[in-house]
Amino acid sequence: MTQAEIKLCSLLLQEHFGEIVEKIGTYLIRTGTQPLRMIVNDTGLLLDQVKKALCVLIQHNLVTYQLQKRGFVEYEAQCKRILRILRYPRYIYTAKTLYNDTGELIVEELLLNGKMTMSAVVRKVADRLTETMEGGNLLKKIPKPKGRTRGRQSLTPPSLSSGLDGKTMDYADVSNTFVRLADTHFVQRCPLVPEIPESPDAPPPPAPTLVINEKDMYVVPRLNLVGKGKRRRSCDEEDNGEHKAKKQKQDGESSEPPPDDGIYWQVNIDRFHQHFRDQGIVSAVANRMDQIFRSLPAGYNIVKQVLDQYLTLLADDPLEFVGKSGDSGGGMYTVNLHKALASLATATLESIVEERFGSRCARIFRLLLRKKHLEQKQVEDFAMIPAKEAKDMLYKMLSENFVSLQEIPKTPDHAPSRTFYLYTVNVPSSARMLLHRCYKSVANLMERRQYETKENKRLLEKSQRVEAILASMQATGAEDTQLQEIEEMITAPERQQLETLKRNVNKIDASENQVDETIFVLESFIESTVRRP
Amino acid sequence: MTFNVEAVGIGKGDALPPPTLQPSPLFPPLEHRAAPLPGGEEGEYMLALKQELRGAMKNLPYFVKPGAPRRDIERYSDKYQLSSPVDSAIDWNPDWRRLPRELKIRVRRLRKGRTTILIPKCKQRVALDKEETIKKLEETDYIMSYFDNGEDFGADSDDNMDEAVY
């Protein structure tokens, strides 16, 4: 774990779970596997704080525990998994593209809560979807709760049951989407508490050893979930707690355990990564074969010969994404994943060199990629760049580790005048260097964003207060003049300041998302070099 | 010089490098501006998602806030104040069967005879907390605002000077 990764993990934990959880998470990342009392001793936090934090971290699959032979429990942080918090928006958005709003909310709920039972997910998602549906409160026009609607485009759920107070979402539809997500492995079952027969003599173990059978991982329990999503009666945040509790008791939710008690589900991150990887490869090939793809007839009525031609073209393409092995049965075509990932990573490197150093450097870089090893003089000749400039560019790239020097001595004494110095690009090593820089970048972005927000804290709080007042006044039907009065509580320069802040924070957030895309490409490539195919 | 200058790379007769009078600039000069961020619907949506998630998580019980700072003097009104989540309480109900026993926290009972209800969702717990608070309110004879122990005096900012001061 590099310092950059640790720093980024800390920031992510702090932003999403608070400082107490962050402190414990960071401690475990730095020191490795630890038992509870060590954590308490070394972090200086209270025992209950540590317990709470560990519960949260375990719930969210960020920390795992293991029962040691000597009977005590040790906790281990999953650093890579913590870094994935950065990718949550991408997972949720992908679910939306594949399975619409229902799929989106299912994945979102699972990510927000770490693990949930299917019945809990279905109920929660149905409620949320019902909230955003049309229809609604008969009594008064309530402004939509801020932020949660996210500008949802026209929702076309398969079946709308119109209750007295507007449309609601049926549990069956949410269930169906859940099953589809499970079938396609985007969600998976969590390991289970083993069913041990009750032995009165032996005390229960200090910690359960959770197990899961491969074949059970995507098995959906037989549930008979009948019902519809519930809409909150009033949109006010200060809901009548008593009223709500009464409603819940009526539903009988709190009386018995749900039928799928103990069967928890989580998001299958690896499956999403597979999807991203496939997406990346397909779009890369599509870009390449743009002309061909555009001329493909609608529908897949491709004649065999035409298909053969396309496949041959793909196989012969220097990108080497598609390989052909043998000719039996017309030949077997495979997608060479490792080569594909390498190409994507290399393209990323090229693009970064171009943006950071300019197009001439990029030309040299691409030259080195193609020719593998070149002497200084050869670089100047092939790239058609004057010696002084070429030298300057090579040194600049060398200093930032995009290219490296290979020494080939002519004589055993390694005298510099009698040694070949060859420039080369070591793609895996450059990729690793760049990945490290990405982690640092995101950490810097987050810190800057937090700083900007902190600087304007007072103004932000004031603006939120004014918004709240406005909302409640609108709800009680205030006049325009009164509303205007409240709005004027924020002066014009303050408004300007808020606008600037919002623009900056948005830019930084968008940048973080962007860097994570690069992180994904580089990590996928590096992983594929480590794993022997 | 107290050491051999040639070791550092300054040859005989070479001028010494100019003295450094100020710290080096904070940021290196930027030769090429960064490419603009890709906009588009996907980017916009993911941005909104990211910010919403951040906001949402701050309000979930998984966001562990430090307990209320210890007051300097114990006051009578403390008993009747709305207590923020205490360190020893946990606002959601994890499935204790899945966790090591040593992590189990004794939930502090605010009222006698309240049975623990196993609820997988955390949001319901929040609603129950509200119910508890309201029931607690019903218990007391006095209304909340009666007990002002004076600690908030002077803390409010005097932003809005439009209000008349009597």
TrEMBL record, chain A:
<dbReference type="InterPro" id="IPR013197">
    <property type="entry name" value="RNA_pol_III_RPC82-rel_HTH"/>
</dbReference>
<feature type="compositionally biased region" description="Polar residues">
    <location>
        <begin position="152"/>
        <end position="162"/>
    </location>
</feature>
<keyword id="KW-0804">Transcription</keyword>
<keyword id="KW-0240">DNA-directed RNA polymerase</keyword>
<dbReference type="Pfam" id="PF20912">
    <property type="entry name" value="RPC3_helical"/>
</dbReference>
<feature type="domain" description="RNA polymerase III subunit RPC82-related helix-turn-helix">
    <location>
        <begin position="7"/>
        <end position="65"/>
    </location>
</feature>
<feature type="region of interest" description="Disordered">
    <location>
        <begin position="138"/>
        <end position="167"/>
    </location>
</feature>
<feature type="domain" description="DNA-directed RNA polymerase III subunit RPC3 winged-helix">
    <location>
        <begin position="349"/>
        <end position="425"/>
    </location>
</feature>
<dbReference type="GO" id="GO:0005666">
    <property type="term" value="C:RNA polymerase III complex"/>
</dbReference>
<feature type="compositionally biased region" description="Basic residues">
    <location>
        <begin position="141"/>
        <end position="151"/>
    </location>
</feature>
<dbReference type="Pfam" id="PF05645">
    <property type="entry name" value="RNA_pol_Rpc82"/>
</dbReference>
<dbReference type="InterPro" id="IPR008806">
    <property type="entry name" value="RNA_pol_III_Rpc82_C"/>
</dbReference>
<dbReference type="InterPro" id="IPR055207">
    <property type="entry name" value="POLR3C_WHD"/>
</dbReference>
<feature type="region of interest" description="Disordered">
    <location>
        <begin position="194"/>
        <end position="213"/>
    </location>
</feature>
<feature type="domain" description="RNA polymerase III Rpc82 C -terminal">
    <location>
        <begin position="176"/>
        <end position="292"/>
    </location>
</feature>
<dbReference type="GO" id="GO:0003697">
    <property type="term" value="F:single-stranded DNA binding"/>
</dbReference>
<dbReference type="Pfam" id="PF08221">
    <property type="entry name" value="HTH_9"/>
</dbReference>
<comment type="function">
    <text>DNA-dependent RNA polymerase catalyzes the transcription of DNA into RNA using the four ribonucleoside triphosphates as substrates. Specific core component of RNA polymerase III which synthesizes small RNAs, such as 5S rRNA and tRNAs.</text>
</comment>
<dbReference type="InterPro" id="IPR036388">
    <property type="entry name" value="WH-like_DNA-bd_sf"/>
</dbReference>
<dbReference type="InterPro" id="IPR039748">
    <property type="entry name" value="RPC3"/>
</dbReference>
<comment type="subunit">
    <text>Component of the RNA polymerase III (Pol III) complex consisting of 17 subunits.</text>
</comment>
<protein>
    <recommendedName>
        <fullName>DNA-directed RNA polymerase III subunit RPC3</fullName>
    </recommendedName>
</protein>
From TrEMBL, chain B:
<dbReference type="GO" id="GO:0005634">
    <property type="term" value="C:nucleus"/>
</dbReference>
<dbReference type="InterPro" id="IPR024661">
    <property type="entry name" value="RNA_pol_III_Rpc31"/>
</dbReference>
<dbReference type="Pfam" id="PF11705">
    <property type="entry name" value="RNA_pol_3_Rpc31"/>
</dbReference>
<comment type="similarity">
    <text>Belongs to the eukaryotic RPC7 RNA polymerase subunit family.</text>
</comment>
<protein>
    <submittedName>
        <fullName>DNA-directed RNA polymerase III subunit RPC7-like</fullName>
    </submittedName>
</protein>
<keyword id="KW-0539">Nucleus</keyword>
